[in-house]
Amino acid sequence: MDYEETRFWRLFSEQIGMQAQSEAQRLAEQFKSSRKRAALIAAEISRDSADLTQHDISHIDALWEYAELVCGPEYALNPAEIYVLGIAFLAHDLANGLAAIPEGMEHVKKDARWLDILTSEYRAENGVYPSPEKLTEPDPEIKSRAISRYLRETHADFAANIPLEPYTDTATGESFYLLEDAELRNQYGHLAGRIAASHWWPSRVLREEFSVRIGARASMPSSWEVDPLALAFILRCADASHLDSRRAPAFLRAVRSPRNESMPHWVFQDKLQKPRIHDDRLSYTSLSPFGRNESEAWWVCHDALSTLHHELTAADNILSDSGRDRFAARGVVGISDLEELSRNIRTDGWHPINATVKATDVITLVRRLGGAELYGNDPSIPIRELISNAADAVRAKKSLLGASGARPWEITGDVTVSLNYDADGTWLHIHDTGLGMSKNVLTNALLNFGTSYWGSPDSRRDLPGLLSSDFRPTGQYGIGFFSVFMIGRSVRVTSRRYDAAASETMVLEFANGLTGRPLLRNAEFHEQLVTGGTEVRVLLNTDLSDILTVDDHHGILESHTLTLAEYYAWLCPALDVNLYVVNKNGERVLAVEADDWKRLDRNSLIDRLHADHRPSERERFKQVINGDLEPVYSPLGEMVARIAIAPMITDARLRERPDSDDSHGVDWISMAAPLVVGGVRAKSSMQSCAGLIVGRTLRAARDVAIPAIPAQDFSAWATSQAASWIPTWDHYIESISQQLVSLYAEPGKMPVGETSDGPATYEQLVEHCKNLQRVILLQDAAWSNYCSRDGASQHELQKDVILMNPGYASVLSVERSQNGGRDIDVHDWVGHFSVGENSVAPNSIPGIIVRAVAQAWSIDESELQSAYARREKGDARQIEVVGVSKKGETVKSVRLSTIAVFSRE
């Protein structure tokens, strides 16, 4: 049906009286002129949004037909309303193409949301945030997807100005408008634009924005009032209901070849026929059925009809409640009954069933996955999560203000922890002066379990420019907040956006954990936050001393209790925002200064990191550390670690057992450098090291982490440590060597093996092997076990034997998890097991020894790799004479299984 054949259009020519006829004719003529110009703009949409179904003038024209169908034959509009509605039809989708935006791409690039979306697309493609250079010169395919997505997310915003914006001819400087008639543009352009923009607003907003009817223009009949609420609902319902083959013809689909994610939309719309009214519902049918390979398209069709059903019911409720005429269509046939829907929109060879993944008991799911069953029973976890969320809010605010050009002294924010006592018990308060939350974020994003707000379309809309700034959120999974119920059932969240008034402070209260509905209310005057931010208050269900008391690591010695400041400094040792604690005297003291881990003296940092150890142990730690804590930098120049090699220490008091002097009476205590994510410690650490390392999380619990940079980037540090380390040649030396070599250290003067002359460095091995025609690699444990069994004899290695440890070092360790499993990303972070099957990891003791032999013989390492790698395939080891055993006058050859035998040709 041509739009001029619709009843609404014909009303222009059916007016009675000269005034009405004259004004109606003027409106009709001016609309036709605007339509011609809109058609030119709409024709360009496919250039920038090729994956979209038809959004050209044919879609705009079809809205007249669908509006009439939805409203019904008795629905009354006057010519002024029809004109405004027609202009809204023209403008509502035009900005899905750059042609509708004056200045086009140049205008888009000035919008902070453009860089946010470009950043999001880059992350989706590459898994990492882009560098500034990647945003300046983006990959063409990523840029194309970003343009399409940007236009889709912002087109409704631009629609508001399309009826008013001039389009300038760069050749002549002449300006053109969608509405040529200046008087009509000034009178109706703003209203038509807002109605056009409203098709992407939530339905409830329309009631607030368009509640007032607009009086008639002076030159028009007084009855020609404009009801923007009715027009806005006509637009959104007509737009949502236009689902038929005109929007997605098969031939055009073949020409455009839309991306996979868009294809189901094309398929289902090509199959649908025009709907009809059945009772008070729209009924859709398909001419051909959906086969098995088109099942996804059928479900996309179902979802689109569900959206339409929601729009129609919302329109009916609001129009009815406000005393306005109701539409004829108030729902969609079959939405609540899949069998009925599949009879109209047929399937072939399969049956649609409501088998979507769902959570029947959401509260139990949240309680489990947001609590102890995910995190374990560690009370530090919810505190860690709350601090991380607070720090994220502060970082986000600082990044947003910095990107907006705020002056440095205006960019503030910190986190404060305090305790309060009342008749109910002990309340833990965590207060930040960060972004704060709006009512929408507080009641939706915060409570949307499993969905992170950061990087979502909502955050791009609310906080344009944040995603493309230097802000990198710690929270990624949308579950951390719910861990708070591990330590308390009564929780109050008080929040105010940083740019809102104090009177807009909101309070969200959980009176009984997750078993009841939370209560949202306006803050009382005394509860209002003086500055923007958020305060989380938790009524602790566990004794505070249980949180602040840390056990020794072996369960043998006494526990000790930390102060509040010591505890939070231990838990959050590397925050990049100031962390304050209110002490018993009510004084706010600085526990962690932003990024102070980069500049604290070594001993102060060790005291912070190992506050869970007794002071005597910390002093012993300081004695064995290899010099100062050396910085490690990322390729971009950012400090990502301060560490040094540190051997194990023994606990002297455990040596005082009267019945034993051997190692069984010694408690060995190892140092480990914790990994921190967002400044807060994870449960991963780097063995045999002092200091700390910036990490990135591997899973939702944020307990398991790996360093933020690959193992190869530790090479310079590890080489420096190897060069400065003075070995004590005790039993622990081998572990240190393995650790540094795994981090790609050049071996320097570290012992990497043992020959008949004793422990040998890399250079000593090279010299030792130069004159050998054959080299036997023997596991050091095999030789030591033989010697201990035959203790009364003297034992000598053959000159061509090198003792070595064939194992790979576990550089990172993780505290035992709930499931007791090992995470391969942690276990093999250094890449020992990612080499080919005929190779040995170069960053390992075996790899170093293979390299030494190859250098000694002036051959390529690959010539020795296969001989070594055969043992990995399960081949039987060679039995070789590796030494002699002498007892008195008796000399016996020692024959043992070898790791590998190298022969020089």
If you had to describe this structure to a student in words, what would you say it looks like?
The protein is α+β, with helices and mostly antiparallel strands. The chain has 32 helices and 31 strands. The protein has an eight-stranded mixed β-sheet with strand order 9-8-7-10-6-5-13-14, with helices on one face. A hairpin with a 5-residue loop joins strand 13 and strand 14 (588-592). Mean pLDDT is 86; it is low at 357-363, 652-658 and 817-821.
- Overall 3D shape: elongated
As a whole number of angstroms, the C-alpha radius of gyration is: 36 Å
- What is the multimeric organization of the chains shown? single chain
Largest sheet: 8 strands, mixed
Please report the distance between the alpha carbons of the first and last residues. Answer: 89 Å
Report the portion of residues in β strands: 15-25%
Low-pLDDT runs: 357-363, 652-658, 817-821
* Strand order in the largest sheet: 9-8-7-10-6-5-13-14
Features:
single chain, 905 residues, alpha+beta, eight-stranded mixed β-sheet, seven-stranded mixed β-sheet, 32 helices, 31 strands, 37% helix
Could you provide a short overview of the structure?
The chain has 905 residues and is α+β, with helices and mostly antiparallel strands. The protein has 32 helices and 31 strands.
How are the secondary structure elements laid out?
Layout: H1 7-10, H2 18-42, H3 45-48, H4 57-71, H5 79-91, H6 105-109, H7 112-126, H8 132-136, H9 140-159, E1 166-168, E2 175-177, H10 182-197, H11 203-209, H12 228-241, H13 250-256, H14 263-271, E3 276-278, E4 281-283, H15 295-321, H16 338-344, H17 362-369, H18 372-375, H19 380-403, E5 414-422, E6 425-432, H20 439-445, H21 457-462, E7 490-496, E8 506-510, E9 519-522, E10 533-539, H22 544-548, E11 549-550, E12 560-561, H23 564-571, E13 578-582, E14 588-592, H24 602-609, H25 615-624, E15 630-633, E16 639-645, E17 649-650, E18 668-669, E19 672-677, E20 680-687, E21 689-697, E22 705-707, H26 715-724, H27 733-742, E23 753-755, E24 758-760, H28 762-769, E25 774-779, H29 780-789, E26 794-797, E27 801-804, E28 812-814, H30 824-827, H31 845-857, H32 862-869, E29 879-887, E30 890-897, E31 900-903
Parallel strand pairs: 5-13, 19-21, 25-27
Antiparallel strand pairs: 1-2, 3-4, 5-6, 6-10, 7-8, 7-10, 8-9, 11-12, 13-14, 15-16, 16-21, 17-18, 19-20, 20-28, 21-22, 23-24, 25-31, 26-29, 29-30
Helix pairs in contact: 2-5, 4-12, 5-10, 5-12, 7-9, 9-10, 12-15, 14-15, 24-25, 28-31
